[in-house]
Amino acid sequence: MNKPDCLKSLILAALAASALVGQDTKYPPQGPQFPGPPSKADSAEWLRDLQQYRTERRVRAGLEGANYERPELKWAQSSFMQPQSMVEDRYFYDPLERRYTVARFLADLDARYGGIDSVLLWPVYPNIGIDNRNQFDLLRDMPGGLAGLKQMVADLHSRGVRVLFPNMPWDVGTRPEERSLAETIAGLLAQIGADGVNGDTFGGVPRTYRMASDAIGHPLVFEPEGYPDGDEMLNWDNMTWGYWKYPFIPMVSRGKWLETRHMVNVCDRWNKDKTDNLQAAFFNGVGYETWENIWGIWNGIATRDAEAIRRVAKIERQFAEYLVSPDWEPHTPTVQYGIFASKWPKSGRTVWTMVNRTVYNIQGAQLEVPATPGMRYFDLWHGVELKPAESHGKTVLSFPMEALGYGAVLAQTEPADPSLSAFLEEMRKLDAQPLSAFPKVWRVLPQQIVEITPTPAAPRAPEGMIRIPGASEFMFEVSGIEIEGADDIGVDVQYSWEDSPRRHHSHQLVIKSFYIDRYPVTNGQFAEFLKAANYHPADDHNFLRDWKDGKYPAGWDHKPVTWVSVEDARAYAKWAGKRLPHEWEWQYAAQGLDHRTYPWGDTWCDACAPPREHGRDLGGPTAVDAFPKGASPFGVMDMTGNIWQWTDEFQDEHTRAGILRGGGYYRPSGSRWYFPSAYKLNEHGKYLLIAPSKDRAGTLGFRCVKDAE
Question: Which of 38, 214, 383, 555 has a beta carbon 3.0–4.6 Å from 424's, enabling a disulfide?
Answer without folding.
Answer: 383
